[in-house]
């Protein structure tokens, strides 16, 4: 009988313990649910902040492009304006001689030489400014839109490099392009321009010490009927092996205190693997320098069909 009572008491104790444990478990589950919801909200906020920073980085690179091209346009426009002013002065002087009926053969020959030289300079520099504006307009429109269109790859790479000319000339680096003519892509030129621009700016910011001159190269090769391989390389100081596997991570930068956002190569990765439908890999040989290899379909849809 005593054993039965002990058994009953033990069962009741176990029930009370079980009830307490279940209550504690319910509290823990409730707290976990609350923490999970908070973590999900924080993750959404982080994703939104990251997207905002990525867009800001894209606009910042476009702003640098605008500033560089505007500075570049000032030179030919200024020369053309000076030549036009000089031609106006020479024409005014010639008109005075004409009205005074005092034009000599030497005066007329000097005037014709002036006209020839100044109009030649005006035409050359206006054409230079027009070429800058045309290249910038196309690249800028592509950078700010997600429009898909057909374009000649070699021509578009040259236009992108042309728009980056002010930065490249200021740094003093040599640029080499080896791309076969006639490769036509049906893709997103704005994304491609952003990728190439970020490669170049990454080299300028991280690849060389101030005043050090180097060579940047872009090589394009056909890969079968519907693929191209674009290799971008510089001969700078390279990337440490410990950092090589992290360069495409968001916010990873070795220049945190010097204006580096850590988003340039992250944007490259997202654009190449996203709208451009390709892949990108980086390597830094022991002798120095950095090389990026980008595999791209001529049309992103063909890549989707194959996968």
TrEMBL record:
It is an enzyme of class 2 (transferase). CDD domains: HATPase, HisKA. Its EC number is 2.7.13.3. Residues 68-300 form the Histidine kinase domain. InterPro entries: HATPase_C_sf, HATPase_dom, His_kinase_dom, HisK_dim/P_dom, HisK_dim/P_sf, Sig_transdc_His_kin-like_C. PROSITE patterns: HIS_KIN. It catalyses: ATP + protein L-histidine = ADP + protein N-phospho-L-histidine. Keywords: Coiled coil, Kinase, Phosphoprotein, Transferase. Gene3D superfamilies: 1.10.287.130, Histidine kinase-like ATPase, C-terminal domain (3.30.565.10). One of its GO terms (molecular function) is phosphorelay sensor kinase activity. Residues 29-59 form a coiled coil. PANTHER family: PTHR43065:SF47, SENSOR HISTIDINE KINASE (PTHR43065). This is histidine kinase. It comes from Paramagnetospirillum magneticum (strain ATCC 700264 / AMB-1). The lineage of its organism: Bacteria, Pseudomonadati, Pseudomonadota, Alphaproteobacteria, Rhodospirillales.
